[in-house]
Amino acid sequence: MKEVRLLPLVMIAAGAMLALRVTTFALGEPPQIAVGQAHAQAAEGGATVAEEPLDETSRPAPVPDTVTGLNQTLPGGSDAASAIETSLAARRAELEAKASDLELREKLLSATQQRVEERIAELEAIEQRLDALMAKRSEEEDARFAALVEMYGKMKPKDAARIMNGLDMAVLQRVVEKITPRQMSEIMANMDAGVAQKLTMELSEEAPQLTVEAAQQPGELPKIVGTRNP
Fold it and tell me: How many angstroms separate the CA atoms of 115 and 121, rounded?
C-alpha cells in the first residue's frame, strides 16, 4: 500500500490560494466582497425569474368551491322568500279567521241548544200540568157518572127509561157501560122502542164480536158486550 504524502498536497493547495489572492488583488476586490456579489447576483436572478408573469394558458384552471357555490344566493332569492312569507302570513290569517268563525258558531249553537232545552223543560212542565188537569177532570166526570148511574139504579125502571129516552146517545152509552145488566134490561124494557134499538146498534158496533163477561157481584147477570153477526 502506497503512503499518502501530505506535503505535496499542502503545497498545491497553498499555490491555488495564492493564485486566487493574486487574481482578486489584480481585479481590485477583496475575496469576501467578490463572493458576496456573486451570491447577490444569484439571488437577483432568482427573484427576476420568480416575478416574470406566467402565460395565461399555462396557469391551471381554478377549482370551483362547492361549498361556497351552495351558500351563494340565487338570483331573485330575496323576492321569493318574501313572497313565501307573505303567502304564509295570509294563510295563517285565513286560518285564524276560520277558527274565530267556528268558535263563534259553536257559542251560538251552544246558546241555542240551551234555549231549546229550557223550552223543552217548560213544555214538559206544561204537559204535566195538563195531564194532571185532564186526570182530575176525568176523575170528576167518572164521579158524576157514577152518581148518575147510582141515581138511575135507585129509580124505578119506568121512570129511568123515560129520562134515558131524551139523553144524547154518547151519554146514554156511557151510562149503560156503568149500570148493571139486570138494571139496564129492566130500563130498556120500558124505553122507547126506537131509542132502545139505536142504543143496541151503537153498543154492538163497539165490539168486534160477542163477548160474555162473568158478573162481578154474586147473583149478577152476565154483561153482554159485542155486535150482531151479519
Answer: 10
pTM of the model: 0.37
Place of cell 312569507: 85
DSSP state of 213: E
Q: What angle do CA 77, 83, 88 make, to 5 degrees?
A: 125
Assign 1 to helix, strand or coil. coil
Domain ranges of the chain: 7-48, 94-136, 155-210
Contacts of 51 (CB under 8 A, 6+ apart): none
For residue 61, give the C-alpha cell.
384552471
Beta bridge partners of 17: none
Helix/strand/coil for 211: strand
| Residues constituting the chain | 230
Read off the C-alpha cell for 191.
124505553
* Residue pair 159/151 in contact by the 8 Å Cβ criterion: no
pLDDT (tens digit per residue) in 93-142: 999 999 999 999 999 999 999 999 999 999 999 999 999 999 999 898 88
